[in-house]
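Recall the central idea of this unit: under ordinary conditions, the amino acid sequence of a chain determines the structure it adopts. In this exercise we apply that idea directly, starting from the sequence alone.
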Amino acid sequence: MDLDMIRIALPNKGGLYQPCIDLLKSCGYKVKKPTKGLFYRDSQNEVEFYFLRASDIPMYLSKGIIDLGVTGDDFHREKASTAKKVLDLPFGHSKLCIAAMQDSGFQSKEDLFGLRVATSFPNIVRDYFRDDQMEIVELDGAVEISISLGLSDCVVDIVETGATLKSAGLKIISEPIFTSNASLYSVSEPRNKKGIDKVVNRISGRLIALDYQLVEYDAPVNILDDACNLTPGIESPTICQLRDDNWCSVKSMVKRDEAHTILDNLQALGCKAILLTNIEMARI
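Accordingly, the structure predicted from this sequence is:
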């Protein structure tokens, strides 16, 4: 193992796998899951990728075996990992919910005290209920079938759309006990902070680029202040005098979810040649 390389753990399957690959490729990394083994080296960028179970990644981080890892906040919490969250990622959103049979009559968590709960997240469940009489049945998967098999009275499981629970004849009880998304975590005591920071800055730059767009337009000098108030940018907009002294060219970053409203307002104000483009990468 090359100690100069930054070791990054990625989920080897499931809903987090492909978004991780897409994100890292957009940051300039050469990454793919090998047909044999669980390791891939990007020598040019001095990074080694390890494809592991998402639920195991917090343990590898806590022991300092890897430098960075992408996993769900639920797995991080369940394993009581000492890793440090450095970035929230825009995928892997889920909820940890209590569910029981449709005809069970259970309405709240108080109805479940002293009963049997099947889950893959025993520590989160234990912390939530704080019920010494509750029997927690720990399962690695297929939690929803445990009730019909007589193993539990209810379950606590990850819910994305709720389709799996519904197909098993279950209903969700009360609010989610934990909400989660994918995050980038760092080892708490980095051996190569400079290398870790380089990776984090690339990913952070890509996330900024996904959150913003670039607007460019020509504005008459007499409305320039009003136009700039609509597009203040990160620090301030870039303004260039055009050949015609009555006009300026303006360039600014705007929030993606506000971009089209801003374009409408710029046009109504009297701006011309309004352009909106995507940003591939950003550092601010």
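Residues 211-278 form a domain with the Alpha-Beta Plaits fold (CATH 3.30.70.120).
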